[in-house]
Structure formats: structure tokens, C-alpha cells
Amino acid sequence: MAESIKIPVYSEEKNTFEYDLEAMLGKETLDIFNLDATLLAKKIKNPLKIKVGDKAPFFKLPNANGTIISMESLINKGPVVVTFYRGNWCPYCNLVLNAYQRIVPEIKAFGANLIAISPQNPVSSLYMQAKHDLGYDVLSDAGNSVAKLFTTIIDSETEIINEAQKLGVDFYDFYDFYNHDTKDIPVPAVFIIDKNGTIVFAKSENGDYRLRVEPQDILDALSNISGF
Fold first, then answer.
1. Of 223, 208, 203, nearest to 86 (Cα)?
2. What dihedral angle (degrees, nearest 10) is formed by the CA atoms of 59, 65, 67, 71?
3. Which domains, and CATH codes, for the chain?
């Protein structure tokens, strides 16, 4: 791997982003979102449902274009990095998926592939992929049927959804929920599955969705299993 390539540091980019976010939203609004994240951190300390050494559940999900992608076909090509995210409306998801996009060449250099999974509908997934020009598949996991096997599912607070609505973001537009009583989204997490279908890396910071797995952590894990 070329030493000249600068690996993005999510925590640094997050700090810069949050400074700008307060200027855009105002302190009062930002405090509401920050309190939500802080409470989730206290409530959910270990969201992972599967750990290193476990066999990963095989699954099939549609990508942004409606093509069915199977885990079995992916691991036949090499290790797979799987990241679960909340949705287009979450600024931290946008920030981290963009950071992961910038390490796709390094991920591929290890013979691995990256996929991102959310409960959003394919239209929203396509928008996410196009917005960031993502060079990896964004899969739609309706009802969190796959996510719940890997990470904790939470019921989004109505107050947060209403606050987002004030900002012109309709939470429900991104999902194919049958009714507005359903507000389930996954706690963000990253897993790496090797060619044998075994989990070799599993990490989530906690319920605080502002915190995410660093790109360097992913690359270090891939380096360890590849012997580089």
C-alpha cells in the first residue's frame, strides 16, 4: 500500500463538521440531537449481536439498482467489509460513508469488498450512492431483517423525528414503513467477514451514532488477515 495515501480520520472530520453544524442549525437544535446521542450511549453500551469467531449469517439484499447481492457470492471473491448505517438523513452517516469511499482502493488492494446496509428503500439508497459517488454497493435491508442479526435495532425517538421535520427532513420518506408507528433503525457497526464466512472484525463504538469505526481500523484488520 502506497505510503503517500492519506487515510481519512473520521474523528477529526467529525470535529470540524460539528463546528459547522452548530453554525447551521443553532445551538439549541444541536443540543437536542446531542442529548439523544448521549442517552443512547448510556443505554446501549455493547450493541453487537455477533462477535469475532462467529460464523456470519448469509443473506441476500437488493442494491440501489434493485440487483440482488448475496453474501455467499461476495465472500467467494474475498473478505467483505460490512457497515450498517442509519440513513441519508443522518449527517454522521454521510460523513463516514464518504470517508470509507476514500479507502475503497486500499480495501480492494487487500482483495476485499465493501458494502453498506441500511433499512432505507432502494430509491433512497440510490440517492446516497450517487450523492457521494460511492464505489461500493449500498444495500436495502427492509425491516432490518439482516441488521438485527448483527447489531442492535433502536426505535427512533419521536422528538428527534419531529425536530428533523422542522429542518425540512422527513424521516419517513427514506423508508418503506407500513405505518408511522415503526421507526426502527440499526446502531451503526462494522464487520469484516473472511472467505470462510467467519467474522474476523466486529466493532461499534456504542449507541452514540456520532461515533463511528475509523477507516484505519478497517485497514488494519484487513492487513492482519491478509498477512501484509
1. 208
2. -30
3. 10-226 (3.40.30.10)
Give the Cβ contact number of residue 185 at 10 Å: 25
- C-alpha to C-alpha distance for 138 and 125, rounded to whole angstroms: 6
- Residues whose CB is less than 8 angstroms from the CB of residue 178 and which lie 6 or more positions away in sequence, other chains included: none
Q: How far is CA 129 from the centre of its chain?
A: 13
| Confidence category of residue 159, pLDDT binned at 50, 70, 90 | confident
Alpha carbon dihedral 77, 204, 32, 99, in 10-degree steps, equals -40
- Label the pairing between strands 137-140 and 113-118: parallel
* CB neighbour burial string for 102-118, b if at least 16 within 10 angstroms, e if fewer: ebbebbebbebbbbbbb
- Distance between CA atoms of 195 and 225, rounded to whole angstroms? 10
pLDDT, average across residues 93-119: 95
Q: Report the candidate in 125, 114, 115 with the shortest Cα–Cα distance to residue 66.
A: 125
Residue 186 near residue 144 (C-beta atoms within 8 A): yes
pTM score > 0.85 for this model? yes
- Do β-strands 60-62 and 68-70 pair in parallel, antiparallel, or remain unpaired? antiparallel
Cβ neighbours of residue 2 closer than 8 Å, sequence gap 6 or more: none
Using DSSP bridges, classify how beta strands 137-140 and 153-155 pair: parallel, antiparallel or unpaired: unpaired
What is the C-alpha separation between 121 and 38, in angstroms, rounded? 28
Q: Which of 7-11, 33-37, 96-100, 103-107 has the weakest average pLDDT?
A: 33-37
